[in-house]
Design brief:
Strand content: 25-35%
Largest sheet: 6 strands, antiparallel
Structural class: mainly beta
Shape: globular
Strand order of the largest sheet: 1-2-3-4-5-6
Mean pLDDT: 89
InterPro entries: DUF6575 (IPR046482)
Number of helices: 2
Pfam families: DUF6575
Low-confidence stretches: none
Helix content: 10-25%
Distance between the termini: 22 Å
Protein name: DUF6575 domain-containing protein
Number of domains: 1
Number of strands: 6
Radius of gyration: 14 Å
Length: 127
Amino acid sequence: MNLLPTGTQLGKLELIEMYDDLLGPKCFSVKNEHTQRYMVYWSGDYDEGSCIKWAYIPVTKPLLANLLNNQVSFHDAFHQAAELYIASIYSDGVGKAAKVERVNGMNKHLVNLPPLDFEIDLEEACL
């Protein structure tokens, strides 16, 4: 199973940094070929583990720095993001292509976003 979706409106993504990798990746940042950066949070495993969903929000360098320094909470950044996407990545044997959907106020409650107490410990991050 690939970690990043391909062939979607987010563009060709490249991993920048991994921040939380407890029992598999949980939080990381990526950028696309246009240098748009996204913070990514694990939203959960679905369909008996054959699909992993990831929440994506666009971030600027200052917002990314504020998130990593705990000056802005991950909870607030994801819950208040003007743009929020959910990427569904399927296991190789399932035969489904990755898809990315924009989340709005009507369906935001269906997505697992960072809890209030989610923080990154930069000393333990896989930078």
